[in-house]
C-alpha cells in the first residue's frame, strides 16, 4: 500500500517540483473573459502575469470538477493505496466540498480530505510537511491528523504592493485607489480562522511593512521543525529584500523555502506582492 498526497494548483507546486515531492496536483480553472485555462497545464505562471497586465477583465478562478478527484480516488482504490487530499481553503473555493463529493462517489474509506483553511504559500507549507511525514513512514490517517492540527497554527503574512487587483475586483473604489496609491500604502492580508482572506493592517511604504512583519515573528514564535516559506508574485527583488529583513528574526532555522505565487491568488493580490508563512506554537487568532 502506498500513500498518495493529492492537492490542487493553489499550492504553487508546479513543473519539476511535482515529481520532486512525488505528489499529484489537480489544476484549478482560470478564466480571462471568454478564455478558459487549466492552471499550470495550458497556462503557465509567466503567461498568467503577462495576461494580467494586458487585459482589462478581472480573471476568475473556479474549482475542478468532481470527476478530476474521482479519477484519482478510484485508481487508488484499485491499487489498494491510501490518499491524503489537501485542498485550498473552503473559505475561498468549493474545492473541499468537491473532493468530499468525489470520495462519496468513489466509495473508498482510505481517502482523507483535509480543508487546509489556507492557500498559496500556506498550502505549500502543509503539503511539503505532509510529504516529509509520508517519506518517514507515516500513514495517510496520521498525516491527516497532523495536518488538522497544523492548519490552525499556520501564520501567513502578506504585503500587497499594487492595489490593481482590489480595484479590478470591485473591492476598492477608484477614489480610494487613487489616494492609497499616492500615499504608497501597502496593505497586509492574511487568512482568518475560517480560511477567508482578510486585511489585517497597512503601512506607508515597505520599510514600515518589514517592521510589522518582523513583529509578527515575535508575537507568534516559530516551531522551527516545520520550516519557513516565502512566496512572491512578481519582482523577485522585493522577495529578496523581504527575506533579508525578516528571516534573521527566526531562531533555530538555517534555511527557507521560496516559490512563486500562481494564478489562484495572483489575480487578487497583484504583482509585487510577497508573503511569509510558518507554523507557530500559537494558534492564529484573526
Model description:
With 286 residues, the protein is of the alpha/beta class. It folds into 2 domains: 3-150, Rossmann fold (3-Layer(aba) Sandwich), CATH 3.40.50.10170; 154-279, Hypothetical Protein Tm841, Chain: A,domain 3, CATH 3.30.1180. The protein contains 11 helices and 13 strands. The chain has helices spanning 16-21, 45-54, 66-79, 95-106, 120-135, 140-150, 164-168, 174-182, 206-219, 236-246, 263-269, and strands spanning 3-8, 24-26, 29-32, 35-38, 60-62, 82-87, 111-115, 154-159, 185-191, 197-204, 228-232, 257-260, 274-279. Strands 10-9-8-13-11-12 form a 6-stranded mixed beta sheet, sandwiched between helices. The protein has a 4-stranded parallel beta sheet with strand order 2-1-6-7, with helices on both faces. A 3-stranded antiparallel beta sheet has the order 4-3-5, covered by helices on one side. The longest helix has 16 residues, at 120-135.
Considering the chains and any ligands shown, give keywords for the structure.
single chain, 286 residues, alpha/beta, Rossmann fold, Hypothetical Protein Tm841, Chain: A,domain 3, 2 domains, six-stranded mixed beta sheet, four-stranded parallel beta sheet, 13 strands, 23% strand, globular
Amino acid at each position: 500500500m502506498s500513500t498518495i498526497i493529492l492537492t490542487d494548483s493553489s499550492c504553487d507546486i508546479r513543473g519539476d517540483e511535482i515529481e520532486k515531492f512525488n505528489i499529484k496536483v489537480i489544476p484549478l480553472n482560470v478564466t480571462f473573459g471568454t478564455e478558459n485555462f487549466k492552471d499550470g497545464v495550458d497556462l503557465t505562471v509567466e503567461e498568467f502575469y503577462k495576461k494580467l497586465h494586458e487585459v482589462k477583465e478581472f480573471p476568475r478562478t473556479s474549482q475542478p470538477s468532481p470527476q478530476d478527484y474521482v479519477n484519482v480516488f478510484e485508481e487508488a482504490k484499485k491499487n489498494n493505496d491510501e490518499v491524503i487530499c489537501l485542498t485550498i481553503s473552503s473559505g475561498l473555493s468549493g474545492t473541499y466540498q468537491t473532493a468530499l463529493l468525489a470520495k462519496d462517489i468513489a466509495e473508498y474509506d482510505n481517502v482523507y480530505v483535509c480543508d487546509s483553511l489556507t492557500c498559496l504559500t500556506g498550502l505549500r507549507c502543509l503539503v511539503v510537511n505532509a510529504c516529509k511525514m509520508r517519506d518517514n513512514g507515516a500513514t495517510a490517517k496520521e498525516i491527516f491528523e497532523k495536518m488538522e492540527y497544523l492548519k490552525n497554527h499556520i501564520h501567513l503574512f502578506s504585503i500587497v504592493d499594487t492595489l490593481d487587483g482590489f480595484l479590478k475586483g470591485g473591492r476598492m473604489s477608484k477614489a480610494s485607489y487613487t489616494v492609497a496609491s499616492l500615499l504608497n500604502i501597502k496593505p497586509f492580508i492574511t487568512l482568518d480562522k475560517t480560511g477567508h482572506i482578510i486585511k489585517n493592517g497597512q503601512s506607508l511604504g515597505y520599510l514600515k511593512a518589514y517592521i510589522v512583519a518582523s513583529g509578527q515573528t515575535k508575537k507568534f514564535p516559530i516551531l522551527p521543525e516545520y520550516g519557513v516559506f516565502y512566496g512572491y508574485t512578481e519582482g523577485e527583488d522585493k522577495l529578496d529584500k523581504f527575506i533579508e529583513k525578516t528571516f534573521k528574526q527566526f531562531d533555530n532555522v538555517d534555511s527557507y523555502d521560496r516559490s512563486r505565487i500562481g494564478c489562484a491568488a495572483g489575480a487578487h493580490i497583484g504583482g509585487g506582492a510577497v508573503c511569509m508563512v510558518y507554523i507557530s506554537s500559537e494558534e492564529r487568532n484573526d
